[in-house]
Structures are given as C-alpha cells and as structure tokens.
C-alpha cells in the first residue's frame, strides 16, 4: 500500500498564521508597556500590576496581585496549549517522524544548552547564576511572526521552527519544574496527583467530552499552586490527559474484526475526520486565538514594562544577551549539523544549512518564556536587568534572523 499523506497542511497553515499574527500583537503590547514604564504614567502602570484581586466562596479565599493572576492563571492556559501542541506533534505530527524529530530535537537541545553555558560563563555564582534558564527559551509567536515577513518561506522551514520551539518549550517546562520550584507541600501535591489520575482514567474509559477534563483542570490548578510547584505546570499536565482520538463505532475491536472497507483511502479519510474532531484538536483550535490574541499580549503588557531611569546594565543583562545572540544560533546550528552528519535527521525540503543558521537566530527571540523564567529567577533590579537583556537581545535576534533567512532563501540550498 502506498504511503498515505497526513491530512495536516490546512490545520498547520491556520496554526502558523495564528501564531504569526499573534506575534505582532505581542510586540505592540510589549512596546506599550515599555512606553508606559518610562512615561509620566509610570506610577499608574506599576500600580495596576499590584491591584489586589481576590476570590472568596464561604471559608475559601484566594487573593493575589493582578500581576500574579496573569502570570499564574492566564499563563496556565498558555501552558495548556503548549502541552496540547507537544502531544499532537509527538503522536501525530512532525515529531512522530524519527528523522524529522531527530533534527528538531537536536536543534532544540543545542539551543538550550549553549545559551545556559554562555550565561554561566559570565554569571558563575548566585544570585546572578539563577538566571541560567532565561536565555534557553524560544518565543514561537514572535519567531513565526518574523519568519512570516520573509517572502517565499518553504513550509518545511516553518514546521522545523515550530517543532524546535515546541521541544524548547518542553525543556523550559522541565527547567521550571525542577529548578524554579520552592519547597513542596505533600498534601496538595498528592491531591494534584489524584486529580490528574482521574483525568487519565477518563481518557482510559473513552470519555471524549471536553467538559469533564476542563472541570478537573480547576482543582488541578489550585492544588499545583498550593503544592509549591508553579501553577502553570497544571496546564501541561492536564494537556497530557486530553484524548487525541475521538470515539468511533469500531473502538475496542481488533483489526480483523473491522470491515475491509476501512482499509486504504477510506481509512485515511476516517483518520482525518477523527483527528479533526478529537477533543485535543477541538480544544487546541479553540484555545489558539484566545492565547495568541489575548493571554500572551496581556502577559507582555504586565511583564515587559521596565523603567530605565537609574538602571545600570550588569552581567545579568550581558549574559542573557550573549546566550540569546550567540549561544542560541551556535547551539541550534552545531547540533543540527551533527544530527545530519550522523544520519539522525533530515533537512526540510527546500532548506539548506544557511537557512538553519538563520533559524538559529530566530530561536534567539526569547521574550514570553524568557520573561516568565526571569520573573521566577529574580526580583527587583536584577529582574529589570534580565528584562532589558531579553527585550534587547530578542529584537536584535529577530532582525538578524530575518535577514539571514531571507539571504539564505535567495541562494541555492547547501
């Protein structure tokens, strides 16, 4: 039987366009925050972030500054989307194909390890050393937004950058869970595990409605918040329990028992329908516009503002800039080259090594996840230094990446 083409181009194109447009909105939100933080409205801007917001039901009460509701609750939706994208890519997307996954994973590993090492070269001791995770991150929305400005970009290059960023996001999630978590509280952690177990049980029992999983997501978020882990990790955990396949009339039957009519092209058609209607795809499709056009711009507005008056650049800013502008492209390119030499990966169609080097700079656009980790690693002046390093380096990386990718595509692939 000839190899069947997977029915993803339209879905992927919608995803890539959504991320690209969201990147531009993200940029303007960050620019507005930066302007307000350095204007006569600076007091109102920083005062808005500290407005107390609470929820009280009977004896239950939860109160946080508005900034933390954005970073802990709204960003949990972003992490939920990251988890959905990761699961889809690993089970039914680019990361399912071993050689395509090999190149993306190698590039992501290089793009995480090299920036962290470059940062630690300049900041070997605490408290500055706590920021080693900041330059590891890649902002998929910004990176795809810049790539969208390049004419005639092959779809394979967009998919490679997307897969790289998704693996990079997984690395960032693990870094947050392992290295930016405080002391753990056993009881809430156990309750979080029980809640997550119920979600996986629903999946195992074949429950394909979304609402039971989303209802479990609320107590899961609260228990993770109280456990000492960062609350946003609840989004990734919940995503792993969301079913990728919808129920169908032959669920549970053996292959021999299924009608022969499901073979061949009809089987491919059914697979396309299943994937399009699966709970994971429905939730991912629903979340994308809310996250791209709502959650991430709001996060940028509340986190990108930094007052430059009296701020002195230090090793934190320089280390982050060095990691994003030198460590990222070197790590992405060198480990991609190594994966190709060892036969562990394959170049996307129409893309050469020059294109991969340009993508390495686009991966140096850290922004959302980098600012998020910076907020976990630092406070006060060091946090401001980290923000300046992230914003400045991301801007330079975007400009360099744009010109390098455009130049590479104007020449024959190597």
Automatic annotation (TrEMBL):
What domain of life does the native source organism fall in?
A: Bacteria
Q: Which GO terms describe its molecular function?
A: sodium:proton antiporter activity
Q: Which organism is it from?
A: Thermus arciformis
| Catalysed transformations (reactions) | Na(+)(in) + 2 H(+)(out) = Na(+)(out) + 2 H(+)(in)
Tell me one Pfam family matched here: Na_H_antiport_1
Stated membrane topology is:
Multi-pass membrane protein
Q: What this chain does, per the record?
A: Na(+)/H(+) antiporter that extrudes sodium in exchange for external protons.
The UniProt keywords, alphabetically, are: Antiport, Cell membrane, Ion transport, Membrane, Sodium, Sodium transport, Transmembrane, Transmembrane helix, Transport
Q: Which GO terms describe its cellular component?
A: plasma membrane
**Any transmembrane segments, and where?**
24-46, 66-86, 101-120, 132-150, 159-180, 186-207, 219-242, 290-311, 318-340, 352-378, 390-409
Q: Please state where this protein is localized.
A: Cell inner membrane; Cell membrane
Report the principal subcellular site: membrane
List, alphabetically, the Gene3D superfamilies matched.
Na+/H+ antiporter like domain
What is the designated name of this protein? Na(+)/H(+) antiporter NhaA
Q: What's this protein's family per the entry?
A: Belongs to the NhaA Na(+)/H(+) (TC 2.A.33) antiporter family.
Example GO biological process term? regulation of pH
